[in-house]
Design a protein that fits this description.
The complex is a heterodimer of chains A (477) and B (524). With 477 residues, chain A is of the alpha/beta class. Chain A contains 18 helices and six strands.
Chain lengths: 477, 524
């Protein structure tokens, strides 16, 4: 294949990627959209492999096949509830690849420089592109290499920590080394100094030292962010992996990499923005970790939590005409989505109006609950987002809250001193009756007391969500 | 302690303040009960029925009053009756203290404690002893029945083999308890019912009973029914004119008019004037529930059924509850019994006349020789004050246009600034960077732009698939690693191979997971 053909294939691939993302605007078109992405990717890889300047096909073939098989295995084995972890793990992989490619670019630059000094034969491949660069272009390229490695390294460790937190291998609480953000800021400043040194020709050690620093920043930054903020973190890392790809694209002079990286980067950025908006927090305060300072003592909560049993919930459900279910991370943890789906099916069969209310930050990943419910075969047209359903709670007989806490906390509206004051929440307490399925009396991830649990029309339905909901099924008419 | 009920002396009164049933309940409170011989006769409760319920039947009112500590009655006592009381006894009955000043002074002089059933404050807790409401309910029902028996036609419309019958049209004026009861009865008889009230906030109640609310296009400022304990307040002359004009318009097509308009402490307002009666069809019926206080209709004569010159029947009965004595007595006796329950918190037959209690204080008009009327305002508001709903001020077309223009301007300004800034930065970069970098930068900036435009349209529920797909797509870094495998340096080849491997995992894994997820989304 000539250079021209490869370029044409790249243009087609870029267009297909844009169509692929655009197709996600609706459930039905999304099924087609994913094929656009697959075709685009195949086109890009084949064109590159067959294109000029790529050698050692004997190595490339088995590696791609091996990687593909591994990916296939992972994708088929993963549980839908483990989706957040998987996404985080895959992000780390992109970061790692970006770091390696950056290193390679550096090595090649050094190699070409030596080669030029020796005055040997014309160079092939990537080295060939490098050989034609002017000194200014080389300086710019060094910056790009540096940035690519920097972002890639942060993405790598950050995603690994996010993975561990989501998979429960690490405690979800926000943790920081003594020194806190000063450490991050220090590491960042040093990286900038190293960048300047690198550009002025200080050698490979600056790049390596910066990599170590960036790995540390990624680790420490994500360690300092609490579990409840994970949706923002995952989308942020998503964005980083895109920017890393774009930086690599600049280094290699590959427009398709730039386009794709920019698409992914802006996608992640927008998702982070949406998540932050849904929690009424600024992006900076999420990154700085933990909750911002409260301005005064929390409002006194009066009343007591009243527990109920499956009989009570079942009879209320039997009497109800309209039911709204509010799922949260607890439902994912308990793997209760199948029971919830069965409950929904039974209630709908009895002629009741059953709907789901999904808060934008429910779960640990944007859209997490939608995926779980879809897996359990809950029809997506009864799964509504906050803005669509929030006005309907006052007309609803029964609300079942399954494993959510902060997203139904009335303190966000009622208590100006609450750490989550001003966060948009689902107004479940306006319904006639609210049942909260919850493991115990403790507070949620954020550690904030929830006045909803103390309201007159709220009954606590303690126990593992899966067991509790399954227990309800035989009692429904 | 003994509670006694005397026989009513008023000619038209058939009710009695204690029924055998209520006596049973009173005994549970620890009281013994007595009744004057023949007291329940007119309401259908024989002396034997009382005896069977364990009530002592006493020969005369004087004996009963001398023996009992609490005396229950329906109508206000006469002065002669008051004189039978000894100091310290308690009388529970309708009393109308505002109209019966002399009687009130007499009762205080004698030293009898009077609990006026008509003074029970209108708060939720006191509804069970609100005798005015329970009597008004009966009056409203009976008013329709009286109208029906005087009206020569069906209420409901029918198409029969013998011909078509038009439904009767009923207008109920005043939607208090009596009005609402009348609406309910009239609609259930099949009539087309209209209702009017000066309080626009009752429109909902009227419509809930099945009648059509007659709207009056009049802005009467801040009328607040809650301020007067749920009763209507006198209206302004302009409003009255408007109201009468509406009635004049309706009068020719209305068959039955039931007026229930009363303003506390005043004569009934004249709302159905002689000229309206004159325009009504012959055979139409007017039932005036306000007859006792002068009547809402010009022609009303209290306690009389009269026929106007054009054949309209005007009924001014004031004893409608008495015409349903059994029902009225049952409810009234229950009201009294609930009052006794509140007076006997320990249920031990020892009454506690707690003047701190809103309900008891409000209804007590004389206590220990003192006149305690009018009572202070109750601590609990009668009806939750209905805040006049502040309608969001409709922006005029011009204002809307101005607003839109302003937002448009602000948007243009901010977008312009961003564009200007971005151009400046790009120019600056362009001045120094080599052309090859600039061409890539153009691609980068455009791609970011496209990304922002496209991603905003992604549906909320598809955010997880979006992340998975962008994740797979970011495996595009494989393109960077592939050419590097061709390098002559073995370190480069090794690192590049590793990169290709992980990127391949990412691509295949990412796309497959996305497909799995999307396949699950299904419509019901």
């Amino acid at each position: 294949m000539t250079f021209g053909t490869v370029s044409a294939a790249y243009i087609a691939a870029a267009a297909l990627f844009i169509l692929s993302l655009g197709g996600l605007s609706g459930q039905e078109s999304a099924k087609r959209a994913v094929w656009y992405g697959i075709v685009g990717m195949a086109l890009a890889v084949i064109a590159t492999v067959c294109g000029p300047g790529v050698g050692r096909l004997l190595i490339i073939g088995p590696i791609i096949t091996g990687g593909g098989l591994l990916g296939y295995y992972v994708a088929n084995r993963v549980q839908m509830t483990e989706m957040p972890q998987l996404v985080a793990a895959l992000h780390s992989v992109v970061g790692l690849a970006a770091v390696f490619i950056g290193f390679n670019a550096h090595i090649e630059v050094a190699h070409v420089a030596m080669h030029d000094a020796a005055g040997g034969s014309p160079l092939l491949g990537f080295a060939g592109i490098l050989a034609h660069k002017t000194p200014v272009e080389l300086a710019i390229m060094k910056v790009e290499v540096f940035l690519g490695v920097f972002i890639g390294a942060i993405t790598f460790t950050g995603s690994i920590i996010a993975f561990c937190k989501l998979a429960g291998k690490l405690d979800g609480k926000a943790r920081k080394l003594p020194g806190g953000h000063i450490l991050n800021a220090g590491a960042f400043t040093m990286s900038v100094i190293l960048l300047l040194m690198y550009v002025s020709g200080a050698g490979a050690w600056t790049l390596l030292l910066m990599t170590v620093l960036a790995l540390f920043i990624g680790y420490h930054l994500i360690m300092g962010i609490g579990g409840a903020d994970m949706p923002v973190v995952v989308s942020m890392l998503n964005s980083y992996s895109g920017w890393a790809a774009a930086a690599i694209g600049f280094t290699l002079g590959n427009d398709l990499l730039i386009v794709t990286g920019a698409l992914v980067g802006s996608s992640g950025a927008i998702l982070s923005y949406i998540m932050c908006k849904a929690m009424n927090r600024s992006f900076v305060s999420v990154i700085l970790g933990g909750f911002g300072g409260t301005t005064g003592p929390a409002m006194e909560i009066s009343g007591e939590q009243i527990a109920t049993d499956a009989d009570g919930v079942a009879s209320a459900l039997n009497d109800a005409d309209s039911v709204i279910i509010v799922p949260g991370y607890g439902m994912a943890v308990a793997q209760a989505q199948q029971s919830v789906s069965e409950l929904t099916r039974k209630l709908r069969a009895a002629g009741k109006d059953v709907r789901f209310a999904i808060h934008p930050v429910a779960g640990r990943l944007p859209g997490h609950m939608n995926v779980l419910l879809a897996e359990a075969k809950v029809p997506y047209d009864i799964v509504l987002e906050m803005d669509e359903i929030n006005d309907d709670f006052s007309k609803t007989d029964v609300v079942i809250v399954i494993g959510s806490n902060d997203i139904v906390n009335p303190a966000a509206q009622e208590d100006p001193n609450s750490p989550i004051a001003g966060m948009p929440v689902l107004e479940v307490w306006k319904a006639k009756q609210v049942f909260v399925s919850k493991r115990g009396q403790g507070t949620g991830y954020s550690g904030i007391e929830n006045p909803l649990f103390f309201k007159d029309n709220t009954r606590m339905f303690y126990g593992d969500a899966k067991v509790s909901i399954s227990g309800l099924l035989p009692m429904l008419r | 302690m003994r509670i006694g009920a005397v026989k009513e002396r008023h000619d038209l009164e058939t009710r009695v303040a204690m029924t055998p049933e209520s006596a049973e309940q009173l005994k549970k409170l620890g009281y013994s009960c007595a009744v004057e011989a023949g007291a329940g006769q007119a309401a259908g409760f024989s002396d034997d029925a009382y005896r069977a319920a364990g009530v002592t039947v006493v020969g005369s009112a004087a004996l009963l009053i001398a023996d009992a500590d609490f005396i229950a009655k329906v109508r206000p006592p006469t002065e002669a009756e008051i004189d039978l009381f000894a100091a310290g006894k308690t009388l529970i009955s309708f009393f109308y203290p505002a109209q019966n000043g002399d009687l009130l002074a007499r009762a205080a002089a004698v030293g009898v404690n009077v609990i006026a059933m008509d003074m029970v404050p209108r708060i939720s807790r006191a509804q069970k002893m609100d005798a005015l409401s329970s009597m008004a309910n009966i009056a409203g029902y009976r008013a329709v029945i009286e109208a029906s028996s005087n009206f020569g036609r069906f209420f409901t419309g029918q198409v029969t083999a013998a011909g078509k019958v038009a439904p009767a049209k009923v207008l109920v004026i005043g939607a208090g308890v009596a009005g609402l009861a009348a609406i309910g009865t009239a609609t259930s008889l099949g009539a087309i019912t209209y209702a009017f009230d000066v309080r626009p906030e009752v429109a909902e109640q009227i419509e809930s009973m099945g009648a059509e609310f007659v709207y009056l296009d009049f802005d009467n400022g801040s009328e607040d029914g809650a301020a007067t304990g749920g009763y209507a307040a006198p209206s302004s002359p302009e409003f009255r004119e408007k109201q009468l004009a509406k009635f004049r318009e309706l009068a020719p097509q209305i068959d039955i008019v039931i007026t229930t308009a009363l303003i506390p402490g005043r004569d009934a307002p004249k709302l159905w004037l002689a000229d309206m009666v004159a325009t009504m069809r012959p055979g139409s019926v007017i039932v005036d529930l306000a007859a006792e206080r002068g009547g809402n209709c010009d022609l009303t004569v209290a306690d009389q059924r009269i026929v106007s010159g054009n054949g309209v029947i005007v009924i001014g009965y004031t004893d409608l509850p008495s015409r349903m004595a059994a029902q009225a007595s049952t409810l009234y006796a229950n009201n009294i019994r609930h009052m006794m329950t509140d007076l006997t918190p320990a249920k031990d037959g020892a009454p506690v006349h707690n003047m701190e209690d809103d309900v008891i204080r409000g209804s007590t008009v004389t206590y220990q020789g003192q006149i305690t009327f009018p009572p202070p305002r109750p601590k609990v508001q009668a009806i939750s004050a209905q805040k006049p709903q502040q309608k969001a001020k409709e922006a005029t077309v011009d204002e809307k246009r101005a607003q839109a223009a302003a937002t448009f301007k602000a948007q243009t300004k901010s977008q312009g600034l961003v564009l200007l800034g971005a151009t400046a930065v790009l120019l600056l970069v362009g001045a120094y960077a080599p052309p090859s970098f600039m061409s890539h930068l153009v691609v980068f900036v455009l791609a970011c732009f496209v990304g922002f435009q496209v991603i905003w349209n992604v549906s909320h529920s598809l955010h997880t698939p979006l992340m998975a797909v962008t994740n797979a797509v970011s495996g595009i870094v494989i393109l960077g690693a592939l050419p590097q495998i061709g390098s002559g340096n073995w370190v480069v080849v090794a690192l590049a191979s590793l990169s290709v491997l992980v990127a391949a995992i990412n691509i295949v894994g990412g796309f497959l997971v996305t497909r799995r997820m999307l396949a699950m989304f299904q419509k019901s």
